[in-house]
């Protein structure tokens, strides 16, 4: 991808911090991680507890603090809420949203999904139990990971991470995309966050937008495309 040459011309190291969303953990980034590492980037994968937004922002900020040099902060799904709040850190030079929520001030996942796009598929989220949410395992692959290898999609369904209602309701205070250059990858076959909703958030954030066919788990099914937009952000003069 030409990244090493671009980095050689820039004495400032570029670190990538990857933030996962709800129902999953950081292991889904493995394919993206492998590409970015092979292209010479320092990559950190955040493991957020996804219990409250406040805690997830704190964990992500610790990862940013530990990273070398400038940081490109990447979020998938609910991870977009986390990076919108944590991305105001001065080390963060740009943001990349991968089929992610990009809330404005005062918005949360709960408020963003309160009025779904007409005709959009309803995610198979089960009623909360003890304050935590899960997706229906039988419908997980179809809704979240339709283009992921069937055995891997089944494993993702079986290994779901409980998503706290408190995280879902966590409101962004000062969204980083208002001050930092942003990129957005729209997954056009997404059944969790409707593509039109993704396009609307990307436009509002004035993000450079790329659209590719893919499920909500596009970062798992098409790591090359995801790594490409992350490297574009890392090598852009806009990102410092």
Automatic annotation (TrEMBL):
What is the name attached to this protein's record? Answer: Alpha/beta hydrolase
Kindly give the SUPFAM superfamilies that the UniProt entry links to this protein. alpha/beta-Hydrolases
Which Pfam families does the entry mention?
Answer: Abhydrolase_6
Keyword tags: Hydrolase
Show the PANTHER family listed in the entry: AB HYDROLASE-1 DOMAIN-CONTAINING PROTEIN-RELATED, ESTERASE_LIPASE_THIOESTERASE DOMAIN-CONTAINING PROTEIN
Does the record carry Hydrolase as a key word?
yes
Q: Which GO terms describe its molecular function?
A: hydrolase activity
Name the InterPro entries for this protein.
Answer: AB_hydrolase_1, AB_hydrolase_fold, Sec-Metab_Biosynth_Hydrolase
Q: Does the keyword Cell membrane apply?
A: no
Domain named AB hydrolase-1: residues: 16-228
